[in-house]
Amino acid sequence: MPSGPEQFGTWLAGIGAVTVAVGLLLMRLGRIGLFRLPGDLEFVGRNWRVYFPLGTRASSCR
């Protein structure tokens, strides 16, 4: 089993691949509307988009 910089590089490449996969999954789920609630408002024009997340509760620091 390799150790040292080779092992560290392998871990970094693996973490990077997982990060890219999760990012792509979240982008795909956002496009199909999974993260939108019925109370959210969205106005779309040709070159603009305004989104008001009224039904989505923002997390607060407590």
Separation of termini? 46 Å
Strand content: 5-15%
Structural class: alpha+beta
Instruction: Figure out the total of helices.
Output: 1
Summarize the biggest pleated sheet.
2 strands, antiparallel
Shape: elongated
Poorly predicted parts: none
Compressed to H and E, one letter per element, the order equals: HEE
Mean pLDDT: 80
As a percent range, the share of helical residues equals: 40-55%
- Please tally the β strands and state the result: 2
Strand order of the largest sheet: 1-2
What is the total number of structural domains?
1
Report the radius of gyration as a whole number of Å.
19 Å
Task: Give a description of the structure.
The protein has one helix at residues 5-31, and strands at 41-44, 49-52. Strands 1-2 form a two-stranded antiparallel sheet. It is α+β, with helices and mostly antiparallel strands and 62 residues long. The mean pLDDT is 80. The chain has one domain (5-52). A hairpin with a 4-residue loop joins strand 1 and strand 2. The N and C termini lie far apart (46 Å). It has 1 helix and 2 strands, in the order H-E-E. Helix content is 44%, strand content 13%.
